[in-house]
Structures are given as structure tokens and as C-alpha cells.
Amino acid sequence: MKPGLNLIAEPGRRRAALDLAREIERRGFAEIQVSSSYANMAQCIGLALGTERIAFATAIAPIYAETTEEFAHSAAYIHEMSGGRFRFGIGVAHGPTHVRMGITPGKPLGDIRAFVEKYRSHENIGGLPPVVLATLRKRMIALAGEIADGMVFSGGSRAHMAQSLAALPPTKRGDPNFYIGNRIRTCISDDAAEAKAVLRRTMAHYLLLPYYRNYWKEAGYIDEMAAVTPIRRSGNPALSCGGSGSSSTSAPGRPIRRRRWSR
User: Fold this and answer.
1) Are residues 167 and 221 in the same domain?
2) Which of 151, 143, 140, 152 is nearest to 214 (CA)?
3) Which domain covers residue 226, as residue numbers?
4) Whether residue 149 is found in the same domain as residue 240
5) Percent of the chain scoring above 90 in pLDDT
């Protein structure tokens, strides 16, 4: 099976993004995920109407971006218009997003639990799509197993994945209807050094987020995260990506293996 792809409809290129979505569908990719850069619920309405077979999802919709009622109505509309192809991926997002939204979040686990409960409480709006939680650390993974229909990692360490999935109840780990995904930034190039440099630049800002640093420590990157501390004080995370940025999807201390993809 081909992997899923992330697709962002940038301003001025929204119609082109929908054309690309139809090409992704034609080529048989598994799904389309839409990150939260530009109103991903709106983009998913376009995907519901503009594609026919491919599954698609928000990955993720920050739960503070709209009222729970508005999210529920939008999700029910997309679910119905797509014929059940939509997954509603949600999360608490990160500090910079909270600042941009002008909100003060509560505790992540409590906020997510309350959101899902209220989201499912709305009646007479039609069926609702499956809820997928953004996860990295074990307590959120356990919560996904308790209240959600799936979970999605962003930059989850493959070397640490078995330990992460152990936080799920065995019934959910073996349930084919419980969605488990891992969003991994990928640069396809014949030049491995340049590909790693691109990934370092695009992943550098995650080093400023405590949630990610704590996850990478949990995953075994303790020395790499210790090396980040003085760079954080300088405010330039790009200076410190030699360790974590080049190997975060492989086992600690092991080099990345380059894969060649063909059409």
C-alpha cells in the first residue's frame, strides 16, 4: 500500500490543491491529511466534494480554534458529504499556536477529554466521523485508547514505537478499525546530505517545544536533548539539529537509511 500524503491548500493555490488531491486519489495513495496551517476544516469540505474514494483527515484541528458545537456541525457535514471517508483528527496544538489564537489552554488530557465528550453530545446533526487524537507521549496514547477511534503521531520515533503502543489496551492494538498513523516529514533526494539538511531546517522549531523535547528524551535521545539546552537560550534552534534532526525517525545512534521511491 502506498503511504498517505499531507496536502496544504495555500492562499492563491486552493483550486490547484484540489486538482492535486484528485491526482493523489488517481494514483492510489492511502489517504490525504491536512495540517492546520490554513483552516483545514474548510479544506476538508473541498476534499469531500472534490474527490470520490480517498480517505482524508484533519491532522490536526486545534480544539481551541472554534467552539465544540461548530466543530461538531462541520464534522457532521463533511462526514455526510464524503460518504464516511473523513476522520476528525484533533489535538491541543502547541504554545506558539495558543499565543496566535489568544487563548490560555488548560491541562491537555482534561481539555481533550472534555472536548470529545461535548463533541459527541450534540444531537440531531447527523452522524459524526471517527475522532483521532494527536499523540506522542504515553498518557495521551492511553487516553486515545479509552475515548477515541484512533491516534496519530507527528514525528514519532519508529525505534520507540513498540514502547509507545504498549500504552494502548490490547483490544485497541489489535483492532483493525482503530486508526494508528505516524506523520513523518520526508525529503526525497539522491543527495542524502542535502536531504538531511532540508529536514534539519524544517524540523528545527520543534526543539523549542518542551512537549517534543520530553518525548524525544523518553524515546532515548537524552544526550541530543541535553545538547539543545544552550542553543535554546540563544533562540536559534537551527544551530543544534545535527543530532536529533538527522535521526529522529531511526534508532538512537543509527544512521538514516535512504529509500528510493518509484512511481
Assistant:
1) no
2) 140
3) 192-247
4) no
5) 75
- Closest by Cα among 27, 50, 36 to 7: 36
Cα distances from 10 to residues 5, 17, 27, 163, 187, in angstroms, run: 16, 8, 22, 37, 20
* Sign of the C-alpha dihedral computed for residues 147, 151, 157 and 161 taken in this order: positive
CB 79 within 8 A of CB 86: yes
- Nearest alpha-carbon partner for 35 in 94, 89, 77, 84: 89
Grid cell at residue 13: 493555490
Tens of pLDDT, residues 23-40 = 999 999 999 999 998 889
Phi-psi region of 85 (alpha: psi -120 to 50; beta: other; left: phi over 0): alpha
The whole-angstrom separation of Cα 86 and Cα 88 is 7
Domain membership flag for residue 199: yes
The CATH number assigned to the domain holding 152 equals 3.20.20.30
Cα angle value 217/197/8 (rounded, 5°): 85
Pairwise CA distance, residues 111 & 132, whole Å: 15
User: 17-21, 136-140, 256-260 — which is least confidently predicted?
Assistant: 256-260
Looking at the structure, tell me whether residues 56 and 159 fall in a common domain: yes
Say yes or no to pLDDT of 263 above 60: no
Q: What gap in Å lies between CA 21 and CA 27, rounded to an integer? A: 10
Rounded to 5 degrees, φ, ψ at 240 are -120, 15
Instruction: Considering only the C-alpha atoms of the chain, give the largest distance between any 2 of them, rounded to a whole number of Å.
Output: 55
Q: Please state the rounded mean pLDDT for residues 90-118.
A: 93
